[in-house]
Amino acid sequence: MKAALLYNPEIKRYDFGEGHPFRGDRFKVFVDFFRSKFKDQVQEIEPKPATDEILKLVHSEEYIEVMKSASEGVFIKNITEFASGDNLNPLTRYIPRGIDEGARISVGTSFLAGELVAEGKFKTAIAVGGGLHHAKRGYGEGFCIYNDVTVCAENLKQKYNLERILILDTDAHAGNGTAEIFYDDPSILFIDLHQDPRTIYPGTGRIDEIGSGKGKGFTVNLPLLPGTGNDAYRYIFDKVISPVAKEFKPELIIRYGGSDPYYLDGLTSLGLTLDGFRMIGKMVKEIAGKVCKGKEVDLLGSGYNLGVLPYAWSALISGLLDLDIDLDLKEENPPPKDSRLEYTKDMVERLRKGLKGYWRF
To answer: 163: Cβ–Cβ under 8 A, 6 or more apart, which residues?
Structure first.
């Protein structure tokens, strides 16, 4: 069975404007590159934009209406009550024109990817433009308008009655929106690898943030020092992610995160190389095969070095689909593979103590 690749060309509308780190050309750059390497390995599907009803699975009606109106050029006097400065066009200092349409495509893409896997039509579905994990129920920030990750998961819970979903966030930034929305929800195990919040936006994702109420213990944060390399990531998969996933027994895995943990990303300071991204894809495939019959949804969106982005996204997919494809990128002066490994081991030990009584790892 081939994997599904979900891509709508109109995702290019998800663009914050000239001078902003997040531009809409990233998606076509990736897909053109991907097709040149993987054209016979996936089945391409064009998803539709999310409707208001789909967005309401997570977001407030007021927020949806404000984003739609502002995106159409309607002046909203109190726009900063709904969006942070980094979600505004740098030139106009307002919501970018047309971005609501692009954001709805992002949500619709991840939404459909989840349904295709839940219905058994594909074991793996890859959504181009997903992983907008900073958006909250009524507030957009961190280059994220709507939170496609949580909409996808919430639909899987409500429509398909899934009781255990593992959300794995490998983006370089902590997924504060995803964490907040599911913080007290024991049906969602949220594991988040990210650069140490003391050194990067959004400043959340500490080890002691483990959930609340019935969801206590179901948020697992793994903050990484700048420069953290491939071996440290592998150690985390071997010692934390894999054993906790086996204990949780998810019915489906959602992984998201693009190229921003790359050592030359430009906006972040982690230390992965292409081999590290390929390893992440391979480990996710192995875990899914052992715990949920291979059912995995993969969301690709982030990364701020456009020259590296298509290679890193493709490396993730090559690992996930077990493809031996030469990506042909010369990597100059990469960090040592074992960079920050000893610190990571200490961090995992502190995490183990903090989650004692919740998980055995």
So the answer is: 157, 187, 251
- Can 194 be counted among the known catalytic residues? no
Whether 1 shows a pLDDT value over 90: the answer reads: no
Place of tokens 């495939």: 285
Largest CA distance in the chain: 53
- Residue in 133, 134, 173, 194 annotated catalytic: 134
d(CA 182, CA 92): 34
Threshold 0.85, pTM exceeds? yes
- pLDDT of res. 38: 85
- Residue identified by tokens 């109190």 is 78
pLDDT tens track for 80-110:
999 999 999 999 999 999 999 999 999 999 9
Q: Closest Cα to residue 313, out of 234, 263, 260, 271?
A: 260
Q: What is the pLDDT of residues 43-65, one digit of tens each?
A: 999 999 999 999 999 999 999 99
Q: For residues 359 and 352, give the distance between their C-alpha atoms in angstroms, rounded to a whole number.
A: 8
CA 137 vs. chain centroid, Å, equals: 17
- Three-class HEC string of the chain: CCEEEECCHHHHHCCCCCCCCCCCCHHHHHHHHHHHHHCCCEEEECCCCCCHHHHCCCCCHHHHHHHHHHHCCCCCCCHHHCECHHHCCCCCCCCCCCHHHHHHHHHHHHHHHHHHHHCCCCCEEEEECCCCCCCCCCCEECCECCCHHHHHHHHHHHHHCCCCEEEEECCCCCCHHHHHHCCCCCCEEEEEEEECCCCCCCCCCCCCCCCCHHHCCCEEEEEECCCCCHHHHHHHHHHHHHHHHHHHCCCEEEEECCCCCECCCCCCCCCECHHHHHHHHHHHHHHHHHHCCCCEEEEECCCCCCCCHHHHHHHHHHHHCCCCCCCCCCCCCCCCCCCCHHHHHHHHHHHHHHCCCCCCC
What is the assigned CATH class of domain 3-354? alpha beta
Average pLDDT over residues 37-42: 87
